[in-house]
Design goal:
single chain; Rubrerythrin, domain 2; Citrate Synthase, domain 1; Cytochrome p450-Terp, domain 2; 3 domains; 18 helices; binds s-citryldethia Coenzyme A
Amino acid sequence: MSKKATLQYDGQSLELDTIVGTENETGIDITQLRAKTGMITLDPGYGNTGSCTSDITFINGEKGILRYRGYAIEELAEKSSFMETAFLVLYGHLPAKEELETFEAGIRDEAYLHYGMKSHFEGFPDNAPPMAVLSSMLNVLSCYNTELLTTATKGPAFELPASRIISKVRAIAAWAYRTSQGKPFMAPRTDLSYSGNFLHMMFSQQFNLYEPLPEVERALDLFLILHADHEQNCSTSTVRMVGSSHASLFSAVSAGVGALWGPLHGGANCEVIKMLERIHEEGISPRAFVEKAKDKNSPEKLMGFGHRVYKSFDPRAKILKGQVDNVLKALNISDPLLDIAYELEEMARSEDYFIERNLYPNVDFYSGILLRAIGIPVDMFTVLFAIGRMPGWIANWREMHVQSLRISRPRQIYTGEILRAYTPMDKR
Ligand code: SDX
């Protein structure tokens, strides 16, 4: 029997059920609120509103905990691969050897894009933003998979579109990059890992195949593991919203790309590097920049800092910070932006402004330096974030349909003009 919450207002009293999750989070069930009281709740930005129950990812923002299907991100980062983590996020358990081999074979066999998609890339201008290309081409992909535009949640009718999107998103991303560079497309190989094949399609030349260092391939795979899911963030909620109208998985993830693109969300990884480059090139002192970021009258933010949920260190930022050093050492390169990042972090974490607001480095603060170290161009950073988040978006889309959730349709409180008569032109 669930504990009750009591709502009292204007002489009315309403008992509301509560729901307690497996990690003892408690939600007040307001599904009957409007029917019984005529009232709604108001929560712009949904900071206090749960849109669903979910078995996929657990975050404890106060303790800096992140788990996919119960497994700690620290363990998955150390011991898993992106393919194994994608299977876990999608299907809820760590795959047995044969399950993983079958899943990886499906991804490997689906790496090519239909030749007809090539001409769409040629229609984009060289300076087309890669996230715009990615979002568009995911919908173009649906044109070559019309038999898969369903809301199936199991069997080949789900597994095939899921694998096709997770696999083909690499070629779409790599070909978007090569189009912008005026380079011919590079076909995927069948003998490379998921991450290795992406790097091959990005950087190989006709007679000079790109062979990534093991550290580079592992760093990219780790980056993708860390981005695989993150419960009901802006872009995942967008995927659920679009999917709730029974639009296809392709159009839902295409919409997710659009939401992720924003500089407050996935676009922050580009903004962090641009911020660090500006500080470096203009010789701005980190101290002066931190002062600007604190100043309400300044447009500057300390990009890569702060989070709606984490009120302590984002565990992904901790892992990435450790990895960046390893990759730079393995590649025998040093990056002045890393020293600036360290300085900014050290300053921010001793400043009352940041401490009072629980502003810590988030996943984007160090991820850009890692991607830059392995040679990914800045305007492709958020595309890599989208590639990593595909399993999470797909798993959330699927969970929503397994739960047979109704179409998402929030209400509002109207604050506009009350009824008024139409005024003829000569009376205005
Ligand atoms: C991601 O939701 C997810 O899970 C997202 C994500 C995922 O994996 O899907 O984790 C990925 O999007 C990470 C976040 C990347 N974005 C950034 O790094 C952009 C910079 N950060 C901020 O814009 C902000 O912190 C947000 C958008 C991340 C969170 O915004 P909130 O929760 O709406 O918080 P807020 O803007 O209301 O800030 C609270 C206070 C404000 O000051 P006061 O009005 O209280 O005086 O903190 C200040 C803000 O001005 N603040 C910052 C700041 N972030 C918040 N001040 C300076 N620099 C910052 N970065």
